[in-house]
Amino acid sequence: MADVLNHGGDGGDEPPHEHANRLQVDCQTAPAAKKRGPSRSLHLVKLFQSNRKRPLPIDFDTKEGTYLPTGKNQKYFSRVVGTHVRQFVHPYFDRWANVPEEQKARATGCVYEFFDVNPRHYSKADYKLIVDGIEDTAARRYRQYKANVNAYIRDKGTDVPYRGLTADVWVKCIERSSSKKFKATNALKYKMETYMHQMNEFMTLLTNNLQAVMPGIQLPTPPPPPPLSPMHEEELDSLNDEDYLSDL
Question: What is the pTM of this model?
Fold first, then answer.
């Protein structure tokens, strides 16, 4: 598989993509994380194998300017990013910007191995925005990963490490969750979310009372309150992903 890394085809005589200087890692040589139940990415693995382990085609929306992945394989994109973020990045950095470049490259580099993100298909400006979008996806999945680890510490304690974490990484996660800065940030976030819940409840009550005394009045429906612990459906699905790299 390392032979095709950074190439848009089978690695033959094609020059590597322009991100190649960042990606000096073979995804299969990395230590595997713990298995976590039936894989939801086995179909992607089969597609990859049936394509002779060459990058699968994928497009990006440059016309509308979202730069999000499109096409039949886009549904696997964010999940692949999330899987490799959990495998290669330690969940104790304050933000994605603070993650060492080596860990970032290992987390996002496998995207280019599974998908044909070829700069020849796009203008230089569009390709830069596509790469930035991949980084943004990784940052979002990293935030969710940290949230999952923090919730585990809060709900289950620190005796048993979070799945897939080594002892030294687990210790640093505990230290981070115990820091004054972390606790203060979480307290502020909780207060803001609680305030939003209370405001939504107030608006719902006000709307109901006005409609009771003025049946004909047309009022906008208040938006539903945001969850205190947001978890998008896609991210929730990713919690059941298996480390499928060892199956390749």
Answer: 0.63
